[in-house]
Amino acid sequence: MTEEHDPTTAPPPSWATATPPAVGGAPGGGVPLVAVPDGGQPGPPQPTVVPVPPVRSRRRWPWVLFILVVVAIAVSSRIDLNDYALQPGTAQSVQQFITVPSDKAHPVHHPVLLTDVEIGRVTALSYLYFRLSSDTALEPVASVTGGTAPSQLDAQGALEMSQAEEYAKVAALRRLGYPVPATAAGAVIAGTFPGTPAYPVLSVGDVITAVDGTSTPTAAALTKALAAYHSGQTVTLSVKKGGTGPPGPLSVTLKTTTVNLGYNTNGKGPYVRLDLGIEPEDQVDFSLPFPVDINVTNIGGPSAGLAMTLGVIDTLDGGTLTGGRTVAATGTIDAQGDVGDVGGVAQKTVAVENAGATIFLVPPQEYKNAMSKDRPGLKVYAVSTLDQALAVLAAHGGTVPEAPSTAKVTGTTAVPAG
What we know:
The protein is α+β, with helices and mostly antiparallel strands. Among the domains are: about 90-115 and about 150-180 and about 290-410, Ribosomal Protein S5, domain 2, CATH 3.30.230; about 180-285, Pdz3 Domain, CATH 2.30.42. Helix content is about 25%, strand content about 25%. The strands form five sheets. The chain has a six-stranded mixed β-sheet. Strands 5, 6, 7, 8, 9 and 12 form a six-stranded antiparallel β-sheet that branches. A two-stranded antiparallel ribbon has the order 2-13. Helix 5 packs parallel to helix 7 (about 305-315). It is flat and about 120 Å long. The relative contact order is 0.16.
């Protein structure tokens, strides 16, 4: 018997009633109704496209972090701290900077070395690096500048080197027996102080030769002349701008100003009251018996004075001053042959050791600092005069000229004035 089914009562096919797995976005978790054209048959269920909210990529975070680090570095590199960093510089032959007439020159095979330090302002970025470096010294700004305005430091360093070169020539020539007459030529400006009348109109290296027509051949004479005036008065200075050419008039109205010299390590004091606001030194003109030129480049300050003096003596007196040894020297020099104190000797000691020096001449005040970096093979000697330095070299086989009996001239003296 054949069984018949009424299509109107027959159950729908299984695919029409099956409930697929729930899909997000469909009511009740089922498949939404599908429209079927008239006369057509419903087909299989169509997939449902459910919008998925965007997910933020984690790849963006490394770039954000990188940018933050770059910004932090840029900002910290511009934040100056209240210190300078002193690092070992170079030790190089002084002979390359010295020129004398060819008929007086001798070949020098083992020249004296001059040495320097590298100095830079410490920033928030560089502080930790400098602090952890065993060969770096951090010095307060005030102790390095001595109250000099930062804008004047380069000019002051150039002036000090120029003076050191001149004194080195004079000390060497006199030690060799040449007469070198000297003439007091005014007061050279070693610095001016911010906020004072002098600051905007006078520069490092200018030379004042008179005040209202009264000659001022020395720094002391200038200080005495200015003492006759008081705040509110106008004075006319005779000034050689840059220390060259004829002097010209310069009118300045005095004003009493409290100045922080900043010599203390904390930068607070001592304080002085100045009406003009300059730091003068003696300007001395020397008459050399023949041309001697010293032109040290890219180094400022007076600390190469002793090395330059020995270099001039060496080239004029046979070229065997060091006895074939590698000798380095640091210290200021004046026209009398006196050796003065300098800074950064610990760092200079490292530099001369790296250059292979076996003898290092230093001012007595800096002997302990040099010995703090002493290594085997380097002998450090404290010398306070040119004659003492020559005696050390003679004891190590150097050929040293006999000492003449010539008169000496007073060197420069720096004193705050007016």
